[in-house]
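User: Second chain of the day. Same drill as before.
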Amino acid sequence: MTNRPVTHARFTLERRYPVPPDTVFTAWADPGAKARWFSRPGDEHQLDFRVGGCERVRAVREDGSTLTFEARYQDVVENERIVYSGTLHQDQALCTISITTVCFHPTAEGTRIVLTEQGTFLDGREEPAWRERGTTTQLAALETELRQRSQHP
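Assistant: Same format as last time:
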């Protein structure tokens, strides 16, 4: 019998952005904007943002292997909430299965988002800390996208 560990993890990240919820929501919904902050230059990115729609990001790593993230949008409430389920593969091996909820809350200064991800990490191919770190990096890139958008509407 081989060692095939399963790790379950959950994390929540909160961020505040100095723009209204509809602007932040649009950065998730617009394919061009989402590609700029959610993927890296050179990655393949496709987005069909609607309930039942899919998102796919394919990245070739320095060692030649590929990482493919695929998500299906389960729930979308405009300017309020997004829920999607996702998988991450390295080449053909399934690494992670997750469900992510993003809530958009208006504040006096703009928007507070609360992102909660629950994941099942398979066979040691990905660690929960790696996913949280990657999501943190993406939310920082979202902040850059929103700043540039507000400077050049």
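The mean pLDDT is 95.

User: Great, on to the next one.
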